[in-house]
Design brief:
- There is one protein chain.
- By secondary structure, this protein is an alpha+beta fold.
- It has two domains: 74 residues, no CATH class; 119 residues, no CATH class.
- 49% of the residues lie in helices and 10% in strands.
- The protein has seven helices and four strands.
- A four-stranded mixed sheet has the order 1-2-3-4.
- A hairpin with a 2-residue loop joins strand 2 and strand 3.
- It comes from Catenulispora acidiphila (strain DSM 44928 / JCM 14897 / NBRC 102108 / NRRL B-24433 / ID139908).
- InterPro entries: DUF4191.
- Keywords: Membrane, Transmembrane, Transmembrane helix.
Length: 242
């Protein structure tokens, strides 16, 4: 019997085909243009400006045709760089008012950073995200700054009980947002990566980062614990979980 090499999904259907590079760029362009209607004019202006610079340089050096041809790929590159930046800005703009937006941005941190979203939260959808990297453990909040203070305090106490007085907590807590004193989503990752360890504590080695990561995963998420004794039948009584 011939071997069936067709890729199947667990449900038995055909696996979805991966989108090509051009298809992805087209979709990103469409989404970016919805948030940034001036995108075509901006890209054209940058590309044309780069090409004009090379042609003008060619005229000064007596070889406008050569420099003009050489300027075409440079103009395309300039337009792609601007497109990437404006696409990123549009993506941040489209999610900035949604719960968990900061976690979505933090998930794009480069290799070597571990992000645990929603380690603390309340009914008003204020939440704390935990980031572990070489500076140590960083707490990032999103929501109302006044309500976040209690969540920051709770998480700091939890980490201190877990790791003791030597817990590598970065002194500065970050609140993501557009108000004064907050860090905009577009600068969130850069701000996190530039943080320094707490006073008296050095940067963690990669092995130490992995050790802390393993210990945090072993503890698991901070699930609410019901008050009172556990019932003998092992079932959780309703209405006692806060």
């Amino acid at each position: 019997m011939a071997r069936d090499t067709t890729t199947k999904t667990p449900a038995g259907g055909d696996a979805p085909k991966k989108k090509g590079r051009l298809t992805q760029i087209r979709e990103v362009y469409g989404m970016t243009r919805k948030e940034d209607p001036k995108l075509p004019l901006v890209l054209a202006a940058w590309a044309l400006g780069a090409l004009v610079v090379f042609v003008a340089l060619g005229v000064l050096l007596g070889s406008p045709l050569f420099y003009g041809i050489f300027g075409i790929p440079v103009a395309v590159l300039a337009a792609m760089i601007v497109f990437g930046r404006r696409a990123q800005r549009a993506a941040y703009s489209s999610i900035k008012d949604q719960a968990g937006a900061a976690a979505s941005v933090l998930d794009t941190l480069r290799r070597g950073w571990d992000v645990t979203p929603g380690v603390r939260f309340n009914r008003q959808q204020d939440m704390i995200h935990r980031v572990l990297g070489r500076p140590g453990i960083i707490l990032v909040g999103e929501g109302n700054p006044n309500r976040l203070k209690a969540l920051f305090t709770e998480e700091r106490r939890h980490l201190t009980r877990l790791f003791g007085p030597d817990v590598p907590l970065v002194a500065q807590d970050i609140v993501a947002g557009d108000e004064e004193g907050m860090v905009p989503l577009g600068r969130l990752n850069k701000t996190v990566m530039r943080l320094k360890p707490a006073t008296g504590k050095g940067y963690l080695r990669p092995a130490q980062v992995q050790e802390y990561q393993n210990r945090l995963k072993a503890v698991g998420p901070n699930m609410p614990i019901p008050k009172g004794p556990m019932p003998r039948n092992g079932k959780m009584p309703r209405g006692q979980v806060r």
